[in-house]
């Protein structure tokens, strides 16, 4: 018994630590911008199975106690099941449907194997002790003989009970009371997820249901009547022992199974809810032994519905530190998991008190049916009421083979020249997209597949799953099909980010470091006549530092996520970055410049389609509700774009996704400034589009001492090009936040808009430079001040500092010559 308890504690500790450690490792890699480690979860699974399975195997073979041997065998099989299921995490998380299909097949196969093994064991005669299994031990006082309970039809198979009457009776019986109570318990455990979560796509949801059913079947096969009978011995049998001891053993087994279910992150809530559910299952098993039916099916329902919650109502990619710190998906997953734990404890206590006492209440079918029906109705009401109704799956981003030919576009500069270039680029892009997308759009309409066409990259975003993806990938005009991520809605909006720092009394330290304040005071240049476009989380258009700079009109704001009519910002990131470019009150580099805005991030996540949609809006703004293909106004394009974002693979981009977009903006004479990324100090970490592209001005970050920060991404970029191009202040930069306040934030996101502001000063000082991108880049690099790269130069100091620290005063003086 001591060995059994020690082994159980070892399994629990090892399993919990491995799952938390594995998830944290995934998150560190994600936050660091490093590639996903495919071998992480398989190695962890093998390690846990070996380390926990070795003492468990000894427990399954050595002890004389049948109950202890059964405990070891069940835990060993559960560990093997955990290992098999965990191997599936080698599949990329972005292909969730494939993972769920593999999970369903693996769990179903494992359940079949367990049932066959139990059947084979059941036909082996087992010698009963003298006087039968319920006889008192030698020397014990005689007690009246107690007949054994009626046989459970699940005994022979060790799996789900066959609740049908013999076919000779000509009908199928109604579900047993214990089965209905298992269903009710499962619905109760599912309810928090229905309330706080949101479903994915149709196929994703169906596969999640099938996978959950398979896992429930595996649990029922593992915890069959043959298992529970080992803990119901005694004279007379003691149901309380079955619940307490059997429930503990079952809880450890369910913990192991749950640890293998779901991609990284989705399994964590099951570590809380499944173990206490073992006691509820033990109570149902005690009642099932009295009523002779229903125990196996009750286990399948209760475990299957518990597993269904995190599988179907969450996206494991959103259980991420990227969204932590606000009331976003990680918060609501924690709430649902906590509520599930409370429900599981209530079920364990309630079922234990009602069903597992010596004189327990015999479950009544009508009462159990009413309980299940009420909970099913409640779940339905919650789903369409306080829940998030509908399907919210990912979409597909289809990139066509032919991209517009922009060679030969006249390179004219100045305001009129830049506008003429933008008009010609817009015309060619739209013509190419209309011509090459015609057949595909017609077929999409015929199949009633919702879709959104784009022209800046010749691409279409399509609503569809794996089958649609395979069909699209096989079409001759399609180059490749990517997944365009969509975040699922929340039960309540996350609170808007706010700043509690006061407005600066003069120019902020970063503005002084690059000499922008001298440009205002000595050269009289503030950026007037130049427009900066911001694609980010949004902009608080009412902020005192930004309100006066909004360009206005019906084509200066676009929100593809939430269709807001006026500039707004929940996350705060966009307000802060734009404030560093054009904000007043001493926080912005070019306070006299105008701005336009677009929302390409929602809750700090984006996707290829919306990143592209905002860049497309910047080339040819269009009025709210307008058609980008016909209502675009290239004459109203902003001059400079500040982009403090990147599109990593987890959001659906590949290295080439946005390449045609930045090439088109460059051909149109619009300067694209982009953040290098915050995945330093690793070399070759400038890798998320659009930062690596040659036609993008990529910006790293320095601190007050002109030292490149540890977080600033380093080059070289893929292909060997030196990146970043420049560095700017990015450590504890003070700027605007939603609600009228200010805050200090750090990142290359903060450095990037300052370079955009410097270009706005240059073009304001010399309007002939507008659209002259080669000369503008040359001036910026030639006038840059030295910056300190640190000890690791990644092969060349330019891969850390670029040309150096941007110098606003020197750049504007050079632009005026």
TrEMBL record:
Record domain Peptidase S8/S53: where: 527-784
Key word Protein biosynthesis present: no
Pfam families, alphabetized: Peptidase_S8
The entry's keywords: Hydrolase, Membrane, Protease, Serine protease, Transmembrane, Transmembrane helix
Composition bias, Pro residues: 128-152
Catalytic residues, chain numbering: 536, 573, 749
Listed transmembrane segments: 38-62, 74-92, 98-114, 178-200, 206-228, 240-260, 266-285, 292-311, 331-354, 366-385
InterPro entries: Peptidase_S8/S53_dom (IPR000209), Peptidase_S8/S53_dom_sf (IPR036852), Peptidase_S8/S53_subtilisin (IPR051048), Peptidase_S8_Ser-AS (IPR023828), Peptidase_S8_subtilisin-rel (IPR015500)
Classification via Gene3D superfamilies: Peptidase S8/S53 domain
Spans annotated as Disordered: 128-161
Coiled coil: none
Family: Belongs to the peptidase S8 family.
Protein name in the entry: S8 family serine peptidase
Species, as recorded: Micromonospora thermarum
């Amino acid at each position: 018994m001591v060995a059994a308890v020690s082994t159980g504690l070892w399994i629990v500790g090892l399993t919990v630590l491995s799952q938390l450690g594995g998830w944290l490792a995934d998150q560190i890699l994600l936050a660091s911008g490093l590639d996903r480690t495919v071998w992480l979860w398989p190695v962890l699974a093998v390690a846990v199975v070996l380390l926990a399975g070795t003492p468990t195997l000894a427990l399954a073979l050595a002890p004389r106690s049948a109950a202890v041997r059964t405990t070891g065998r069940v835990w060993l099989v559960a560990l093997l099941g955990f290992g098999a299921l965990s191997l599936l995490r080698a599949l990329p998380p972005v292909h969730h449907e494939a993972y769920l299909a593999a999970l369903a097949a693996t769990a179903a196969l494992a359940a079949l194997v367990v049932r066959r093994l139990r059947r084979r064991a059941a036909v082996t005669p087992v010698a009963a002790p003298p006087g039968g299994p319920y006889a008192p031990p030698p020397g014990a006082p005689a007690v009246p003989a107690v007949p054994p309970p009626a046989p459970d039809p699940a005994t022979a198979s060790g799996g789900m009970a066959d609740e049908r009457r013999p076919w000779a009776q000509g009908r199928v019986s109604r579900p047993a009371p214990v089965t209905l109570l298992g269903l009710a318990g499962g619905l109760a455990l599912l309810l928090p997820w229905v309330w706080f979560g949101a479903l994915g796509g149709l196929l994703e949801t169906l596969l999640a249901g099938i996978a959950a059913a398979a896992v429930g079947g595996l649990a029922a096969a593992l915890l069959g009547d043959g298992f529970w009978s080992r803990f119901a011995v005694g004279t007379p049998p003691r149901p309380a022992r079955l619940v307490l001891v059997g429930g503990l053993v079952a809880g450890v087994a369910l913990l192991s199974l749950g640890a293998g279910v779901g991609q990284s992150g989705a399994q964590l809530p099951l570590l809380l809810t499944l173990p206490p559910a073992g006691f509820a299952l033990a109570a149902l098993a005690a009642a099932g032994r009295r009523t002779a039916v229903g125990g196996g099916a009750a286990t399948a329902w209760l475990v299957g519905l518990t597993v269904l919650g995190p599988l179907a109502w969450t996206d494991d990619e959103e259980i991420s530190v990227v969204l932590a710190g606000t009331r976003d998906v990680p918060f609501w997953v924690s709430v649902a998991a906590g509520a599930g734990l409370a429900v599981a404890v209530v079920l364990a206590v309630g079922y234990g008190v009602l069903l597992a006492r010596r004189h327990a209440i015999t479950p009544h079918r009508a009462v159990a049916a009413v309980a299940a029906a009420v909970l099913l109705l409640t779940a339905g009401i919650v789903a369409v009421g306080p829940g998030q109704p509908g399907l919210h799956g990912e979409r597909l981003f289809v990139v066509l083979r032919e991209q517009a030919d922009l060679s030969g576009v006249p390179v004219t500069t100045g305001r009129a020249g830049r506008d003429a270039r933008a008009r010609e680029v817009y015309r060619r892009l739209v013509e190419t997209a209309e011509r090459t997308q015609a057949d595909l759009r017609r077929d999409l309409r015929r199949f009633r597949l919702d879709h959104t066409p784009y022209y800046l990259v010749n691409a279409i975003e399509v609503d569809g799953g794996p089958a649609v993806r395979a069909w699209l990938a096989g079409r001759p005009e399609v180059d490749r099909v990517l997944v365009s991520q969509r975040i699922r809605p929340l039960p309540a909006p996350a609170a808007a980010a706010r700043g509690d720092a006061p407005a600066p009394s003069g120019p902020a330290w970063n503005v002084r470091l690059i000499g922008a304040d001298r440009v205002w005071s000595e050269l009289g240049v503030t950026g007037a006549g130049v427009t900066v476009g911001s694609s980010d989380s949004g902009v608080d258009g009412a902020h005192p530092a930004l309100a006066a700079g909004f360009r206005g009109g019906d084509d200066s704001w676009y929100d593809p996520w939430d269709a807001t009519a006026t500039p707004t910002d929940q996350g705060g990131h966009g307000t802060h970055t734009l404030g560093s470019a054009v904000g007043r009150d001493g926080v912005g580099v070019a306070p006299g410049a105008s701005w336009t805005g677009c929302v390409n991030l929602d809750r700090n996540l984006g996707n290829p389609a919306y990143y592209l949609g905002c860049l497309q809006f910047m080339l040819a703004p269009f009025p709210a509700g307008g058609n980008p293909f016909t209502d675009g106004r290239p004459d109203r394009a902003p001059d400079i774009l500040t982009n403090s974002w990147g599109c990593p693979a987890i959001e659906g981009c590949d290295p080439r996704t946005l390449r045609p977009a930045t090439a088109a903006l460059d051909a149109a004479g619009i300067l694209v400034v982009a953040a290098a990324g915050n995945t330093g100090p690793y070399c070759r970490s400038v890798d998320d589009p659009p930062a690596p592209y040659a036609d993008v001005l990529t910006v790293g970050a320095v601190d007050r001492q002109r030292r490149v920060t540890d977080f600033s991404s380093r080059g070289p970029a893929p292909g060997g090009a030196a990146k970043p191009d420049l560095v700017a202040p990015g450590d504890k930069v003070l700027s605007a936040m939603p609600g009228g306040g200010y805050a200090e934030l750090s990142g290359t996101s903060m450095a990037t808009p300052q370079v955009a502001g410097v270009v706005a000063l240059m073009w304001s000082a010399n309007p002939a430079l507008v659209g002259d991108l080669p000369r503008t880049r040359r001036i910026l690099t030639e006038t840059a001040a030295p910056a300190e790269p640190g000890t690791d130069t990644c092969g060349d100091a330019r891969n850390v500092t670029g040309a150096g620290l941007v110098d606003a005063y020197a750049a504007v003086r050079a632009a005026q010559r």
